[in-house]
Structure of YkgJ family cysteine cluster protein:
Amino acid sequence: MNGPYGDEKLTDSWIAALIKAQAVMDSGVRISLRQESLLRGQDPACSPGCDGCCRGQRVQATDVELAGALWQLGNVAPEDAQTVRQRLSGGGADACPFLLRGQCAVYPMRFLSCRQLVVFGRACAAGEDPARTRRQDALTLLAGHAMRAYSLLLPHLGVVDAPADPWDFQETLAGLMRPVCGLGVQDPQAFARALNLRGARARQAA
């Protein structure tokens, strides 16, 4: 897989952890979705082209996930990649900068929060957060999967010892998330280098 960083070794310290975290999250979603669909007697409302959850300022991710999305840009059409980079550089957009023509430009590397967001009943309105507006329609992920997935990323975000208590873990994670719409990345390569340095310093200090 080609990436935008020039030196592919830049990704060695975090890309494997990110891919494993995505697999853990996807596994949890598949199991949870199978069980909940049977209980509800209906399929989820999500479908290709519904992009309400990609709009507004609600989309958030960790720097590891953002770096993975930037890495994936090396595999999309050059003109589309340039459009995304311009959006990232400008910041302040009212939709996820990776949203192109109603679809995620970096879908294979989409964020963990996106992977676990599944709703029943009706598709999300633009910018809607179903966890706030209709919690009863949102998929309830089996306990532990999200925590295990994000735990794999924490060492690369400067957190060597992840909190064991779920509430403490959520508080730590909240401090590491940032709004994707206001990211304002000027240099993807510098972004990846800074991420590598943060993880390396944390491991040295441990």
